Amino acid sequence: MIELLIALIPLFKAVHIFALIIWCGGLVTLPLMIAHHDPTDSGEDYRRIRQATHQAYIFCVTPAAVTTVVIGTWLIFLRGVFEPWFYGKLLFVALMVFAHAWIGHIIVEVAETKGRTRIPEPLITLMAILLPMAAVLFLVLAKPDLSGIELPEWLRETRDHPLPFEIPKR
């Protein structure tokens, strides 16, 4: 079984990258869509942009986010990537997840309180998204040597609790 999983690593990486592209594209697009929510629009126009934003978030961006995180988690264990740069990447991925949830909150607020919700400037939302994305991209591509950063013991040493499955060796 482990051999099959190792053989599928390129496929997992491809799906991970594909889902990541959709997720990141959606996180950039959604704030721009939210900015078009104008309560002075006619009821039909407002309903159309609100539904488009909601459906993009629910049926496209969120499944891509979940796929990215789940397959990324599988790849952590299949590839055994436990390097200092990787922990930084996880921190910035967590910020992307937080931004994703924040955008979802804004979408719900706009839908439930037509005209009464102050929509954040798209530039602010985009910066909250683009900075973690750029940091993840830098860390993944550059894989900088962060060995000079002192990590806590719980990140450097095993906790003597074996995983319920065998970790493949490189």
UniProtKB/TrEMBL annotation:
Binds 1 heme b (iron(II)-protoporphyrin IX) group per subunit. It holds the Pfam family UPF0093. Pathway: Porphyrin-containing compound metabolism; protoporphyrin-IX biosynthesis; protoporphyrin-IX from protoporphyrinogen-IX: step 1/1. The keyword Transmembrane applies. InterPro entries: HemJ-like. The chain crosses the membrane at residues 14-35, 56-78, 90-111, 123-142. Its EC number is 1.3.99.-. It is found in: Cell membrane. It catalyses: protoporphyrinogen IX + 3 A = protoporphyrin IX + 3 AH2. It is a multi-pass membrane protein. Keywords: Cell membrane, Heme, Iron, Membrane, Metal-binding, Oxidoreductase, Transmembrane, Transmembrane helix. The keyword Metal-binding applies. Its cofactor is heme b. Catalyzes the oxidation of protoporphyrinogen IX to protoporphyrin IX. Belongs to the HemJ family. This is Protoporphyrinogen IX oxidase.
